[in-house]
Amino acid sequence: MTNFRSPTARSHNRTPVTIEVMINGVLNFVDGRIVDLSEAGARIDGASMPARSRCEIHYAGEVTYAVVMWSEFDRMGVRFPYELTHGALYNALRSARRVKPADIPPAFLSQRTTVFGRRGLS
Fold first, then answer.
1. Pick from 67, 57, 60, 56: nearest CA to 87
2. pLDDT tens, residue by residue, 50-97
3. Which CATH number is associated with domain 15-103?
4. Which pTM was predicted?
5. Is 5 helix (H, G, I), strand (E, B) or coil?
6. Residue limits of the PilZ domain (predicted)?
7. DSSP per residue, 7-65
8. Cα(first)–Cα(last) distance of the chain, in Å?
9. Extents of the domains making up the chain
10. For residues 28 and 121, what is the distance between their CA atoms, to the nearest angstrom?
């Protein structure tokens, strides 16, 4: 029996991040923010370029090449022609994956411990 994967299945886990970058298109530089990153691609908010166009992502003095897969008014999804295996973006991805869910405080008041005041005096 052959193990069939759909063409849209992702082989890499996406990781939520907040990375300020500069995108170089054919004619202009645009500021953007990577909010979703994997070894194969990223979602960039605040920047938009035509689908199927090529661009450069500038971060920490390094350049990562990408192809725009989809685009909306203020965000786009890009695919890296070469998988991230080293460099500044890869290091940022590894750092984001090291953060454990236990390190993040609970979002809902019902999940927080009972304390007095902003400083947590009890």
1. 60
2. 999 999 999 999 999 999 999 999 999 999 999 999 999 999 999 999
3. 2.40.10.220
4. 0.73
5. coil
6. 10-85
7. TT--SS--EEEEEEEEEE-SS-EEEEEEEEE-SSEEEEES----TT-EEEEEETTEEEE
8. 61
9. 15-103
10. 52
pLDDT grade, residue 26 (50/70/90)? confident
Q: How many residues does the chain have?
A: 122
Report pLDDT for 41: 97
CA distances from 3 to 6, 11, 27, 66 (A): 10, 14, 44, 29
Name the 3-class secondary structure at 2: coil
Q: Is the pLDDT of residue 5 over 90?
A: no
Q: Give dist(CA 91, CA 2) in Å, integer.
A: 36
